[in-house]
Amino acid sequence: MRSPTPRPALAFAAIFVFIFLLHAPLLQLPYFWDEAGYYVPAARDILLTGSFIPHSTLSNAHPPLVLAWLALWWKVIAYKPLVTRAAMLLLAAFSLLGLFRLAERVTNTQVAIAATVCTALYPVFFAQSSLAQVDLAAAGLIFWGLRAYFEDRRLAAAIWFTLAALAKETAILAPLALVAWEILGLLFGSQVGVRRLWLHETFDQESAFRGSKWIRALLMPLLPLTLWYAYHYARTGYVFGNPEFFRYNVGATLNPIRFLLALVMRLWQAFGYMHLWMLTLAMVLAMLLPPQSDSGGERPRIAIPVQMVFLVIIATYVLAMALIGGAVLARYMLPAVPLVIVLALSTLWRRLSFWPAAAAFVGFGFVAAWFFNPPYGFSPEDNLAYRDYVLLHEDGAHLLETRYPTARVLTAWPASDELTRPWLGYITRPVQVVRIEDFSLDEVISAADLRANFEVAVIFSTKYEPAHPLFDRWKSWVDLKTRFFGFHHDMPPSAVARILGGKVVFAESRKGQWIAVVEIERVEEAASSASGSASGWRTGAGRSRAATVSLP
Length: 552
Prior knowledge:
By secondary structure, the chain is of the alpha/beta class.
């Protein structure tokens, strides 16, 4: 950003306009999933009370930088989804500018442009760009920090990595990985066989002094993050989020079998997920070809020390995110995936004469993955499936508010928040909610015993399940998913209606996701309507028993 030309500002403007136009149809959508469950309520608490510790939701101890950014925009303009999503797109544009400047620094402008466009189109990055979550912003700040690192600007790097850690605590992994790499350089960089792996091939006293100064600079982000956790502990009595959050994301993940399974999933997310395999495969095949030559000679590769730093960051995130994080969400890998894209496109540029066509083909593949879901379970926040989810829940909430405005409603999270918090954008008045965990058989049977407490049930797909799943044919894999990753099958609406003693009055589906509204028939009403009928299951209690026996 110290360039004397207006080029960075023009690049930022071009990037923002590009992604704003891509997201234009999505900017008015109500809040989705973790947005509604944590980030928007926490940012709204900052807006209304000035407190960085949320009180309308349980604190997860996430640092407040991005949430304060949202609260500032709401304060200056208005509390609206359009303002929220525009504010997040500004952060996404700044993140893409950081990636562009990083790629330009380590490769060339052509590769930097291609990498920036492909990253913007990559489904996970695209979907996260306008969502009020923190992982993308943290990744962008890491890119700025890496650029300062390669330019040997210690203070700038320390500031960028500090901001990244205050956006998302897991961003501290990047500077800590570089600390470990610098320490390895001090210990082994003087050996002839490996010295070319580090930024400086001469490891004399001056180089060692430089390494020690970099280690101190890269450890600086730990201080503000530690102060934040100390403040959080003073206000809440716990350090790393509420106990259930910590148990789910750390305590319950420390199992060798789960780690190995999650490691495979993280490797897939880093190199193959959402058509990323197209770029990885192209890179591997291109490496079998000799380098192209221009008028200046053979096209150069990214410097080996730079490649090593990229690989250190990628490996750190793959390993760390396999070890922690209850949900193996692809957005946690956003600091790593764009680095893979830069490395791959640089390889295509170096070895293929038709590399722009190859890059364009990959970009089209990424765009296709916005609309076509993979043949296995995935998080809807990773492509435009999240739009399908929001539209379904808007329709369900509208019907509920129109036909049953005073009813007590059985549902599960996040619909329980959508129906009780009008400011999330789904309803105009709060609804009384009876909450269950999900719509698995056991949960629905348990809810049947509470039938007197609700008149309507809003049921929906809490997990995306393709019509013909690729891997679920193996029972052992389903058992492992159930044991380690909270997998379950949601009951279909007709079965839920039978168990609860009601009828489906509304049902809608979109690309493997669905929602339904079930009107609960009172026991005495059911008995009256079933008078003279041989189908005894039509009474409320009888229906629950028969449905329980007949379901597979």
